[in-house]
Amino acid sequence: MSRPIEAHINLSALQHNLAQTKALVGHSRIWAVIKANGYGHGLLRVAKALNTADGFAVASVEEALQLRQAGFLHPILLLEGLFDASELSLVVQHRLDLVVHSHHQVDWLLAKSIKVPLHLWLKLDTGMHRLGFNQEGLHQAIFRLIHHAPHFKCHLMSHLACA
Q: What percent of the chain is modeled with pLDDT above 70?
């Protein structure tokens, strides 16, 4: 039995909130996190409303490809990185940024002969304990990537320490 639950989103309120955030942060870049089908409000619908964001963050390659196929040229970050090494060719083809949170993802990246710059966001676990490297693991990942693939552009990121 389904439940008659509806969620309504005010797209102009989303646009207003993005404009307010941009005004507060000055020259910092703002990425709209629109994973999980725009948190249930429609990926493309929300992306169109937030098209002044500097980039989009999604959970999967499938979501990123929907954005690319709809004509979005923004940087797109895969928050969970690669689920499988076979996704790497799509990442390169569609110019996607990747979160790297595990050593097997580093292995996949280094096993391919990728000659184009990729933006990699190395994730440090600061307490949530879901995804991310511990401090020593982060140092190892950075060393391996910089040593074996100096053309990759490495950034650091984290998540809130607790929900």
A: 99
